[in-house]
Amino acid sequence: MEENKNKGLTQELKSAVNTIKTAILQSQSRAARMISGSQLSLYYGVGLYVSANSREGSWGTGAIDTISEQLRRELPGLRGFSGQNIRNMRQFAEFWQPFLFCSPTASKMKMDELHAEIEYDRFALSKWSPTASEIVRDEFLGISFSHHMEILHKTKNIQEVLYCIHEAVVHQWDKYTLREVLKAGIPQPNDTVPNNFAQTMPTARAAIKAIRMFKDEYLLDYINVEDIDAQEKDVDERLVEQRIIHNIKRFIMTLGRDFTFVGN
């Protein structure tokens, strides 16, 4: 059947399809990295805010879980803000703050502000600290929050963290591959395959692999569709439909081999 579909394609048209497909996949890969970078920036801002208020502020025991539950009531369908994940955001921010933005005096000067507001775009290029010269911004933003937490849970110092981030980006490991690599021990320069990232990125296969790095992330779930639908009458119905179909398909596919998702 597939062979018949491709029968009318000349070699020239096949080449055109591959060229366009590669461009589409590369664009999708870039979009995934941009969204992930924005999410990391948000999580960092939330983490700083939670850290300031829960470590030195007036929040009591159970405050984080209470906030998480209320967020989910007010933003139905929101994911990524469970009590545990908010604690992960706090750990993420507390680890990176000294390396990214803080001089010895800056942390004290900023503490009052952190108690009161959240800056959600701290990773914008214009705000990236010039003192963080050893941290490659594109690599830092080139892996998901899940990748970051896997690394932080298994490493001992900033050198190991930076090395693991670099290797994850170079080899385009998804979260599960990264987890297995870290289980075997922190990789060393001679333990990994050569860096051929620059040569492989232009291919469609490499672009798909790059997109899959973020497949475990709910990158658009903090843009709450249900809440937008309640407030804006002109919400794009196709977006809502796609979300519904996606969830139905995922549910059916978990039932096993005897079930299949035929079409929309």
Structural overview:
The chain is an all-alpha fold and 264 residues long. It has 2 domains: 13-232, no CATH class; 233-264. The protein is built from 13 helices and no strands. α3 crosses α4. The longest helix is centred in the N-terminal third of the chain and has 45 residues, at 11-55. The model is unreliable at 192-201 and 227-235 (pLDDT under 50).
What can be said about this structure in brief?
The protein has 264 residues and is mostly helical. 62% of the residues lie in helices and 0% in strands.
How much is the average pLDDT?
77
Instruction: Give the C-alpha Rg.
Output: 21 Å
Estimate the global geometry from the Cα principal axes: globular
- How would a crystallographer describe the biggest sheet? none
The total strand number stands at 0
Structural class: mainly alpha
Q: Provide the succession of SSEs.
A: HHHHHHHHHHHHH
Which oligomerization state do the chains in this entry correspond to? single chain
Helix coverage percent: 55-70%
**Alpha carbon gap, first and last residue:** 21 Å
Number of helices: 13
Strand content: under 5%
Structurally, the number of domains stands at 2
Low-confidence region ranges: 192-201, 227-235
